[in-house]
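Work Package 3 (structural annotation) set out to generate three-dimensional models for the target panel prioritized at the project kickoff. During this period the team completed the workflow that converts sequence records into discrete structure tokens, so that structures can be stored uniformly alongside our sequence database. As a representative example, we reproduce one entry of 152 residues exactly as it appears in the project archive.
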Amino acid sequence: MDRRKNLCECTEVIARAIILDEEKKRVLFCSPKDKHYYYLPGGHIEFTETAKKALRRELLEETGVKTTDVQFAFAGTSENTFIQKGQPRHEINLYFTADKITLGEKMPSKEEHILFSWLPLSEISRFPILPESIKRKCEELAKGSAVSWNDV
């Protein structure tokens, strides 16, 4: 079997949103209902789809919120490898900050397998967040640093 083909089959490119509350003290995270870790909302970029278009589609699918008037600014990338269902996975995450998204205190999920939580930036270190690099970036954000990085 061609090793390059095998690597391509397990590499995922994902668009994710960094959504802060109005006071910029909390950030919106997702968590699987059956596991105890958090990740930023968003999802897989489909073939021929731009990252921002994928992010709009994923946010609509996950939250029911239309983001046609929202501006997304590129914030950075991260690379992550892990094992899922016994298979090695490799993901490249593209992160975007979002302006003008007003979401409720209790963010209902449109997908049965995920829950949403607003996590306080000042306490982000105590939460199990994946990939780990996101936790560090949120800590920098809590200190007032600009959101821009490249971990790839």
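The CA atoms of residues 22 and 102 lie 8 Å apart.
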